[in-house]
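Handout, section B. The chain below has 269 residues.
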Amino acid sequence: MAKKTAAKRKRVRAGARKAKRKTTARPSAGRVRAFELMVAGLAHDVRTPLTGILAAADLLSTSSLGERERRWVAALSSSARHLEALTTLVVDAVRTSGGNRALQAEPFDARALAQAAAASLAARAEAAGLACKVDLADDLPTEAIGDPVRLRAALENLIDNAVKFTRQGEVAIKVGARGFAGGRVRLVFAVTDSGIGLTRSEMQRLFRPFAQASEQVARRFGGAGLGLVLVKRLAKAMGGDLTADSRPGEGSTFTFAAVVKAVPSQQNA
């Protein structure tokens, strides 16, 4: 009887281990592909209302507006066009074989990108009742080769965090550039806020997937805890890094660095 009971327990344990392996197994390629197509469909559908937003922004820009209102409209249009570019990126990634998500290499104006990010920060800061400072270096390349869509996406994430975690005071963005041999340029974006800040232990949790700085922060401000993880990975892929400097109650500074290539005319200049 004891042997039968032991054998039964062994079968039960074996069945439990098998069931656990099934539940923790990686999803099949078919399921992954189906999810990718669903995301691509959603991204494609988002473009429809975006067209209306862009059209309304264009109409507003031709109306009688004050200087401040024109800045708002410009920031609205820039953000909408950036979102449109992101949706295109998602659709194209799924369309390619295997869903390739390699970084793009296309010409762009790094100074114009920095100005657009600064305008986005200024508009969000004004809406939140915060002061805003902008410091753009004079030597930012106007002709560079890189991935401007993903670069802008990383900056928007840092900008969103700066405003979200600041209840009073100011936010700021500082952008600089440093040239290297071979025509490479290191772009450095520092986004600073006077918000809640972070303790040393909270800093250690920042770049863990699905982890917020603390449970209190997660409950108060929400979020999935993925943004900074993805931004850091993106910075690494671009030959740079994402670093943070923060003190509780004194605010934070997140510095995003990426390496781009200057086109020959910019190198000669």
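Note. The first strand starts at residue 106 and ends at 108. Compare this with the example in section A.
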